[in-house]
Amino acid sequence: MSSINMSMLINNWYLIAISFLLAYLLGSINTAVIVTRAATKGKEDIREMGSGNAGFTNVLRSVGKVPAILTIVFDFLKSIIAVILGGVFFQLAFAGSPDIAGIIVIGKYLCGFFCILGHSFPVFFHFRGGKGIVSAAGMMLVADWRVFLMIVTTFVIVFIFSKIISLASITCACLFPVYTFILTFFLDYFNFNYSVLYVVLCTLAALLIAVFVVIKHSSNIKRLLAGEEKKITPKK
Is 179 contained in some domain? Predict the structure, then answer.
């Protein structure tokens, strides 16, 4: 960043802190836990069912299609809201900066990460949450729709051939920073005069999210290597 941006960062740090806090709190509203409790009239906790993960796939297997749809919709929306708010707060914090467009995108990536962090470690539910795939998808849509389309295409292709959601999710997580670098470097940097720092920070943010998601899928990776991961197949 230029010196004026660093000055803005120091003077408006509280706006950035607020954006991170709001993103984390929004992420902490774990839909899987709430929907499961509602569907079972408070008798069940999704974290004690099936795989124990508070996410879409476990809700689908353990509770049903409608609760799973509600989970994926609201987890997607909360991430979108968190990222949009992040963009607004970063725009306020760095108003007047010549690099404002790139800074806003970086803010969206960072707030997306804090939303995923909240989803995985929700303060409202004893820090036991999900793995952040749907929240990451919502972040991608708002931060960079081009990356979102590439990730969705990759997910669909891998899932069609494998029928394993975790494999598709892990593959997408690994390719997220790769896609981000390709688009920000070869398109934004060369064609739209974005800075090298913009490319680096966006790629690093994507890499941070990717590593976090892969680590959260460590148990799935073990089952995949052992050939024990369950496939999603139509019920007869």
Answer: yes
Rounded to the nearest 5 percent, the helix, strand and coil shares of the chain are: 75, 0, 25
Instruction: Please tell me the total count of domains within the chain.
Output: 1
Which residues are within 8 A (CB) of 137 and not within 5 positions of it... i.e. 6 or more apart?
A: 76, 79, 148, 151, 152
Residues of the domain holding 161? 3-225
Tell me whether residue 234 is in a domain.
Answer: no
Residue from 129, 135, 102, 98 nearest 116 by CA: 135
List pLDDT tens digits, range 65-75. Answer: 999 999 999 99
DSSP-derived secondary structure for 54-112? -SHHHHHHHT-HHHHHHHHHHHHHHHHHHHHHHHHHHHHHTTT-TTHHHHHHHHHHHHH
8, part of any domain: yes
The answer to the question of residue 209 being in a domain is yes
What does pTM read for this prediction? 0.90
Helices 65-93, 133-143: crossing angle, 10 deg rounding: 40
pLDDT score recorded for residue 112:
94
* The pLDDT of residue 3 is above 60: no
